[in-house]
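The freezer alarm interrupted the setup, so I double-checked each line after restarting. Inputs confirmed:
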Amino acid sequence: MPTWGGVQEGDDPMIDTDAVDSGDREQLRRWLLGTAEGDRRAFEDLYQRTSAKLFGVCLRILHERNEAEEVLQDVYLTIWRKASQYDADRASPITWLAMIARNKSIDRLRAARVERASVPIDLAAELADDGPAAPALVEAASEGRRLHDCLKELTGEQGRVIRVAFFEGCTYEEIAHRSATPIGTIKSWIRRGLLKLKECLQR
Amino acid sequence: MSTQPSFEDGVGDVDLTAAEYVVGVLDANARGLARERIEREPAFAAEVAQWESWFSPWLQSIAPVEPPESTWPRVRAALWQHELPERNPQIAPTVPPSLWNRLGFWRGVAAGGFAVAVASITALLLTVRQAPVAPPIAPAPVVVAPPPAAAPMVVSLRHDDGTTAYTATVDPARGTVVLVPVRLEGDPTLSPELWLIPEGGKPHSLGMIRRGEAMVVNIPARLRSAASANGLLAISLEPAGSQAHEAPTGPVVAKGNVVRL
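Predicted 3D structure, all chains:
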């Protein structure tokens, strides 16, 4: 049992404010800025510091190691060329980087989605515990608490199916098929849930 | 009333596309449309960024996993090939190190994905060609646009499963193929060999190539016309350390048609 950050049944990873490492965030931001200016050393430092995190993100979506490796390579080529587009006012460095990894992974999934379509999803079961997040890379403490609190306003089904969708990266159709649930029901749970989340998170 | 098909979801016409994009439930087509909106609509892009920020705690809960050690060298090779051990001089012509080192060029390579990358490499080749080794005696004539026949062509060398092994830019006018590695499948103890197969003809070896390295390969003069259209580039796997072969002796693992840019 992880001493912190463990995911409980119906729970979300709570992020302790004490774990927030603003120095790390600042370092990542500087490396990203350096990368944007073509500083290879900064880019390599950024790679060394974030590749395990991003590989974890790719693997979580793709499951298959070879595919995740391929996507990770593409992710860093994208980071190198898009670093100048990073907007510190809009996203923390690690969120921006991890979202690139996530989006590339989902794109890959969409390009070859056949083989996973048959793996059943049990919407009654909670997703597996991911273990602790890397403390030094955790910096969205207040966001973490807000998401956690707002998810409590959703029904159990809404929260669970959004979570499954997020961590599996699968489409409405796939979730419906894999969980043997009518697609209308899945869409309804997810969209109602998202709307409720939005209302709560905007408060 | 909306003319759009509405789902029985109690949400009606509320646009949740940004959220759906971030959660990852959109299919390939809808994702593509969402991407276009991110590019075009600042408000939509801001909404996506907001959802990404809201969901970032979930991303951060994902446990890190060390990637294989080979990933960084691959990234580096794709960006800065010159830092790797020396290229095979028989295969790679001497490109001035100053050009390989030029940051602007390599950022250019990275600037727009492989499509732009290959175009940039072509730009490099033009630069190389135009870079005077000695002061020119007379100003070179200004070429407004290259003749169509000289236009470089892009080839994705793909495995049978559709994944890309190499991206190549074929320049028949200069007689070069610029290879950028993506990921080569197959027995890692074997060495890849590059083949040019003219339409309806038999394979001609362009030489042994190295895994994971960008390189420039010369096309022999007699084959340049074959490279200009409808040819096929292919990669076979051959015994390590062997010389260029008459015909492939090992499996052909990746191939692609030469397509005009």
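Quick read of the result. Residues 59 and 68 of chain A are 5 Å apart (CA to CA).
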